[in-house]
Fold this sequence. Notes:
The complex is a heterodimer. By secondary structure, chain A is mainly beta. Chain A is 0% helix and 50% strand. Chain A contains no helices and 11 strands. Chain A has strands spanning 4-7, 10-13, 19-25, 33-38, 45-49, 53-54, 62-67, 70-75, 85-90, 97-98, 102-106. In chain A, strands 2, 4, 5, 6, 9, 10 and 11 form a 7-stranded mixed sheet that branches. In chain B, β5 and β6 form a beta hairpin. Chain B is globular, with a radius of gyration of 13 Å. Chain B is 0% helix and 50% strand. Chain B is built from no helices and 11 strands. By secondary structure, chain B is an all-beta fold. Chain B has strands at residues 3-7, 10-12, 18-25, 33-39, 45-51, 58-60, 68-73, 78-83, 92-99, 108-109, 113-117. Chain A binds chain B through residues 32, 34, 36, 38, 42-46, 49-50, 87, 89, 91-92, 94-101, and chain B through 44-47, 50, 59, 61-62, 95, 101-107, 109-112.
Amino acid sequence: DIQMTQSPSSLSASIGDRVTITCQASQDINNYLNWYQQKPGKAPKVLIYDASNLETGVPSRFSGTSSATDFTFTISNLQPEDFATYYCQQYDSLPYTFGQGTKLEMK
Amino acid sequence: EVQLAESGGGLAKPGGSLRLSCEASGFTFSDYTMNWVRQAPGKGLEWVSSISRTSSYIFYADSVRGRFTISRDNAKNAMFVQMNSLRGEDTAVYYCAVSQRSIGSFDIWGPGTVVSVSS
């Protein structure tokens, strides 16, 4: 199974900050990686697909980059509605696996 | 608008059974792979099962293989999962999700249905 190691597990930030979350795959996943946002009591929502492509309708302050098996998710100019939990997920091979999640909290 | 709606959750005893349904609308259901993903209370996301467009390919996580059975009815725009031999660790919110962009990518999710397994 492909392990997705996501860090940090939690993060405190302020409005207007730039925040970065990383995810490392245990093997090559050919950039088949999504980033999801999940708010309490709600289903996850895709923000970034194929490691670096912004989902339609998602604000441009969200971005994703990749370098081999290392993936980075960035929110620039943090907004109040961005406080949530974020997950990475690989869909290169079965079983599809998620990172452990990063809870973004207001400082 | 693409919409998914799960139903069938509830309380079951260990060793018991439940059947979840996922009704789809707003897209051509028969064109896409469908999936179940679950989330235990306070925990992360776990992929459970996937079924291809014509049910030719079916996959399960090791944690549910042999106990859960996924199926779909394209004429009714619906997907199902029969959950047998339920365990406490199956307690979770169960989401259905459609893979529209790539197989294994969970592009649109339903709101989820809660399954609790307890004596």
